[in-house]
Amino acid sequence: MESLLELDARLSQRLHVADRPGLLRLLAVFLAHSGDSWFWLLGLGILWLVGSDFWKSRALVLAASVLITATLVLVVKFAVRRRRPEGEWGKIYRSTDPHSFPSGHAARAVMLAVMAALLGPSWLAALLLVWAPLVSLARIAMGLHFVSDVAAGMALGIAVGLILGRIF
């Protein structure tokens, strides 16, 4: 097990761009934040307020799904208690949630993509299916997660998205 964790840390470090100024870092910062739950809940709340009946129903379903996913992620995080990779970037994440496994951002992004694929519209599904893996990679690139954290988060997001997509 120790050798797998070491391999995970080495691979994660290779993807790290938090200390490298430039366009790639700027893009990673943007993508890493774009999966924040508060951002999605705020956006979905606005969509519910101003949207048509179609978008109101989607906003409610997706907001509930974000909250359910966050709850499941927190349960696993506090059961596993894996520390985040060492680093300076993302102090807000490090101080409010010191645990890295699984990645909540990866779980949320993939869950939203799966839900959009199941519930539509197709243009939103296509957009989120491209965005979700980029958010996941950005979390590694900014040094907030290991590759295995993101892989587990993505797997959880797929499972939750499929289950909730069928329910809703």
Alpha-beta classification: mainly alpha
Q: Please tell me how large the radius of gyration is.
A: 16 Å
The largest sheet is: none
State the shape. globular
Low-confidence stretches: none
Number of E strands? 0
- What's the mean pLDDT score? 91
Q: How many structural domains can be distinguished in the coordinates?
A: 1
Strand and helix order: HHHHHHHH
Count of DSSP helices?
8
Strand content: under 5%
Distance between the termini: 39 Å
Fraction of residues in H or I helices: over 70%
How would you describe this structure to a colleague?
The protein is mainly alpha-helical. The chain has one domain. It is 77% helix and 0% strand.
Short description:
With 168 residues, the chain is mainly α. It is built from eight helices and no strands. The protein is globular.
Question: Keyphrases for this structure?
Answer:
mainly alpha, single chain, 8 helices, 168 residues, globular
How are the elements arranged and paired?
Elements: H1 2-14, H2 23-34, H3 37-50, H4 53-80, H5 91-96, H6 104-119, H7 122-141, H8 147-167
Helix pairs in contact: 2-7, 3-4, 4-6, 6-7, 6-8, 7-8
